[in-house]
């Protein structure tokens, strides 16, 4: 059965962990869906892991819609959330609602996610009022990399921690369906999770969250970028792929592949006629 926003809320109420992975293409999303993962996030991290951009700030609405459609087609049971990219909602509440609508109608997503707390409550409120479930991403917000000057753990000092707590309370009040907490101390994430009534999904936020998300290239060791402390490699898939690609090249060069079992047959008689 197709999971919905209610599935996530029920998981929190029943104290069952929510599982989420990023997904960007049909084939991988289908494997994840069949594995039973609750939720597929079409993250704007696709800018880096799928498109090779330096950061997520270059990702466009068209990029998001293109990948979201592919993931949605594969998600028979998983709930699909798609990121609003940088500058698709910052410019106005109107743009936020309009672009959230595009991710639903064109991207076939079931919910959207934006980065922001107190400063984006009006945007969250109006998206929710348009009957679009909206996830608020707080803590480390990668779309703010230019202003932050890099990616750092957030909420380590009192003022910063308090501000993140206020963000969480504000987005819940504004109507966010869930909170994504990125790179904050585990104690802070646990405190917020107990404080709010909506589910929290953590990445680099410890075990106290209602759910967890990882970028799949990180958990499969497929991506060469710097790996954070919070990432766990679940299988050396990157290495396995590289080896398979190398084996293929070697077999082609040494004329081991294709072998006769890989070839299509034809009647000798037809060949004779062709030659004459
Ligand atoms: O874009 C993304 O993959 C994300 C996750 C890191 C939460 O927002
Ligand atoms: Na993102």
Automatic annotation (TrEMBL):
Q: Name the cofactor(s) required for activity, per the record.
A: Mg(2+)
GO BP terms: methylation; pantothenate biosynthetic process
Asked if Methyltransferase is a keyword of the record, the answer is yes
Which GO terms of the cellular component aspect does the record hold? cytoplasm
Q: Where does Mg(2+) bind?
A: 44, 83, 115
Q: What is its main location?
A: cytoplasm
Task: Tell me where it resides.
Answer: Cytoplasm
SUPFAM superfamilies assigned to the protein according to its UniProt record, in alphabetical order: Phosphoenolpyruvate/pyruvate domain
Q: Which UniProt keywords apply?
A: Cytoplasm, Magnesium, Metal-binding, Methyltransferase, Pantothenate biosynthesis, Transferase
Quaternary form? Answer: Homodecamer; pentamer of dimers.
Which protein, by its recorded name, is this? Answer: 3-methyl-2-oxobutanoate hydroxymethyltransferase
- What organism is the protein native to? Gilliamella apicola
């Amino acid at each position: 059965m197709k999971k919905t926003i209610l599935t996530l809320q029920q998981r929190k109420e029943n104290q069952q962990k929510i599982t989420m992975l990023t997904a960007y293409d049909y084939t991988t999303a289908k494997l994840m869906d069949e594995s039973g993962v609750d939720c597929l996030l079409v993250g704007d991290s696709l800018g880096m892991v799928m498109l090779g951009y330096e950061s997520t700030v270059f990702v466009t609405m068209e990029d998001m819609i293109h990948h979201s459609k592919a993931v949605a087609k594969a998600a028979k049971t998983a709930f699909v959330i798609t990121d609003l990219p940088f500058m698709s909602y910052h410019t106005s509440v109107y743009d936020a609602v309009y672009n959230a609508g595009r991710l639903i109608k064109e991207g076939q997503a079931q919910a959207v996610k934006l980065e922001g707390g107190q400063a984006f409550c009006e945007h969250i409120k109006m998206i929710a009022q348009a009957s679009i479930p909206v996830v608020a991403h707080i803590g480390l917000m990668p779309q703010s990399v230019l202003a932050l000057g890099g990616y750092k753990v957030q909420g380590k000092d009192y003022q910063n921690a308090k501000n993140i707590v206020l963000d969480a309370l504000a987005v819940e009040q504004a109507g966010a369906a869930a909170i994504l907490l990125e790179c904050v101390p585990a104690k802070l994430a646990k405190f917020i999770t107990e404080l709010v009534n909506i589910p929290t999904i953590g990445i680099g936020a410890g075990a106290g969250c209602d759910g967890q998300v990882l970028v799949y290239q990180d958990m499969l060791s497929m991506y060469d970028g710097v790996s954070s402390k919070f990432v766990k490699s679940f299988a050396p898939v990157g290495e396995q792929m590289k080896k398979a690609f190398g084996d293929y090249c070697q077999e082609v060069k040494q004329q081991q592949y294709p072998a006769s079992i890989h070839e299509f047959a034809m009647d000798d008689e037809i060949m004779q006629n062709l030659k004459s």
